[in-house]
Design brief:
Blueprint: H1 12-19, H2 31-36, H3 38-41, E1 44-48, E2 51-56, E3 62-66, E4 69-70, H4 74-85, E5 91-97, H5 99-108, E6 113-117, E7 123-127, H6 128-133, H7 140-152, E8 155-159, H8 165-178, H9 185-199, E9 207-213, E10 216-227, E11 230-238, H10 246-255, E12 263-265, H11 273-280, E13 286-288, E14 290-295
Parallel strand pairs: 3-5, 11-12
Antiparallel strand pairs: 1-2, 2-3, 2-4, 5-14, 6-14, 7-12, 7-13, 8-9, 9-10, 10-11
Helix pairs in contact: 7-10, 8-9
Length: about 300
Amino acid sequence: MDSFHIPQLSDIDWVEDIVKNTNVINCSAPFGTNYVWRKAYGTQICHYNDMLLSSYTYNKDYLYFDFPVGNGDTEKALHYILAYGKKFNRKTTIFCSGEEQANFIKQLYPHHFEIDNIRDSAEYIYLAEDLAYLKGRKFHSKKNHINKFTQKYNWSYEPINSTNVSDALEVAKIWCQAHGIHGTQGLSSESCAIRSTFKHFEQLRFKGGLIRIDDKPVAMAVGEEITPDCFVVHFEKAVDGYDGLLYAAINNGFSSKLLSYKYINREEDLGIEGLRKAKLSYHPAILLEKYSFTLK
């Protein structure tokens, strides 16, 4: 059994071995998520009896844990988490993704927790073929956006690799500068995570796509495999302008390269009204509800 520690690149193989052999689809499960956000969230991970345990210390009053991931003994893993949490003078909270995980804790520990449904953290899971093909009446307006974009601009799409990773990072830098990165802690944390993503892009086994217009990099998307059935898009950025069509274009372009997966997780909306509207407009196949269980 391992102890909780800050994620290191050397952890990637055992984490992947555990996660990829489950049916989880939440964005916090894969290694890349834990690694690139480790500084912002105070992330630590633990290899416990063939299970992945993750903890977060970004709030000084709480010690947060994700629901254990893996095919080991979940009950024992939860007992271990709660025992570990008692070592700290903080409230212990466990985050659950979906009803199955939530019900497991309810049945195991009735009356032990205060439970909240966190709508702002619910994750949007789409059928990959829906995002790639945009078939049917419900995607008619999205298809029109793509047609308009392709007709109006001299554009190209390419996968992100070692030869153009700096161009993808440049898109993110331009977006951050345009959106007041230095004035908002959340955006500063995101900027740090993005830099880590591209610094270790190949080591983290990420995949990404880049759009150029007149050879200028203008939009990028990047993510990683959760399981052989599900891919998660962590970051999607575009420069301003171009009739607001770049996000539709990079979404469609990147999704068309992910058809080996059944699902694409495009993460949460953070309670941002415009982002929620945009994510719902793509008709998610699953809205993965999130719950917090805080020990009384």
